[in-house]
Predict the 3D structure of the following.
Amino acid sequence: MQAYANPARFNALALSVLPWCAGITVLLFAVGLYYSLVVAPQDYQQGETVRIMFIHVPAAWMALACYSVMALASAVAIIWRHPLADVAAKTAAPIGACFTFLALFTGSLWGKPMWGTWWVWDARLTSVFVLFLLYLGYIAIWQAIEEPARAARLAAIVALVGFINVPIIKYSVEWWNSLHQPASVLRADGPAIHSSILTPLLIMAGAYTMLFLTLHLIAMRTEIMKRRIHNMEQAEVQG
Amino acid sequence: MTVFWSLVRRDLVLTLRQGGGAGMALGFFLTVLVLLPLGIGPDLNFLQRLAPGALWITLLLSVLLSTDRIFAPDYEDGSLELMTMGPMPLELVALAKSVAHWLGTGLPLAILAPGLGVLLNLDTLLFGPIMLAMVLGSLALSLLACLGAAVTVGLRRGGMIISLLILPLYVPVLIFGVAATNSVTGVPELFGPSMLILTAISLASLVLAPIAAAAAVRAHMT
Amino acid sequence: MSFTAPHVGFVLVSYGFSTLVLCGLTAIVLWQARSAANRLKDLEARAVRRRKPAKPVNPA
């Protein structure tokens, strides 16, 4: 782990890994889309709309996974003061926010034919919504503080506080939901997932994960370059 | 410990002298309570059903309103920097400031808010429970508000960012606070558990929020 | 997939929109990487140019 703390070494590693990541992402998306749009059968209850699940559920998973990556990187940044960890946390946030937004959007589109309205205050949707707000707060901190080192520390604190709260919020929202309405009609982990549904779901989840990995590596490289640009420009002004 | 309480007293006196604190927050609270029926109509039955939730949400917003002044005056005149170097750990400073904010804003609101519930035709059975729940819950609200203030101290648009940062964290307090309040007329067995969870949230914030707030202040000072 | 089934529009819109957002995200990330790389190359070239004439002055 320590060996890759050096940005130059990370750059070299990222460069050698990136083509593979990108290739696997494209491959997984091709196979996953074929499976989810062509191979997977209609659901006896949901009809064609079951296909929305193949892009909705992975997006929701990635929303949580990105936040975990962000929080983990923030913890590393706080404890070991790794500059690379700051970069990792910062660049994971916008990508995670995009996945979260997609989870909300596709969830809404799934809800319309299933529940009859665009938005239902279902426990899962609501907690994903709160997660989206947590992402926005985190991004706002990075944008509000100009000095990178200070922004990194504060953003890391915000990410960790949010991470501690995620399970509490999720639990309380689920509890609230059970109080106000009977268990929702539709659940992703509904009664016995058939393999014809599980296969495309897992492939798409893999595709989303690889997409995140690829974009994250590129964005981290960009951020490192931006910091060097910042330093060089300052040196130029001073020298 | 005397340092701790003198800091609490100092902050309390300062907010009261500046006319901030409870008076301003209460004015805001009142205004929202007047706007609510104007927005959703004067139907008393409907208002009664809405009252606990509306009171709680107004409480969250009122507590948030005075948040950006928790650390800002001390940051501007440099006394915050002195406090970071002082004999008392910064965690305790943050705790003292949270307690002062609670005593100056949260607690008075929690005690007075149910009385204002008359405006929303709050069920008389609920006056006691909502006050109890709000007293307990507002402690967590003040502690989290202090954390938000510590993160955003010295930022130009700090007030906006605080609401974005802190309101999502208020979700559990809101849910269990309203649940405890509503349970009296709904499912009485829920009152005990909800109050216990509310207490747990407050106690957990009591321990964790000052630590995070102190870390944030230190990050600002370096 | 049958295009005559009910609610098929929702499926198409959600796939289309997801594609749009993810492709847009990828495009932005790539574009930022490109522009940062170009800017860095630019700066490095300038730094080298500035350093060169300074060499003869060295008392070596």
Notes: Chain B touches chain A through 29 residues (CB under 8 Å). The mean pLDDT of chain B is 88. Residues 2-221 of chain B form one domain.
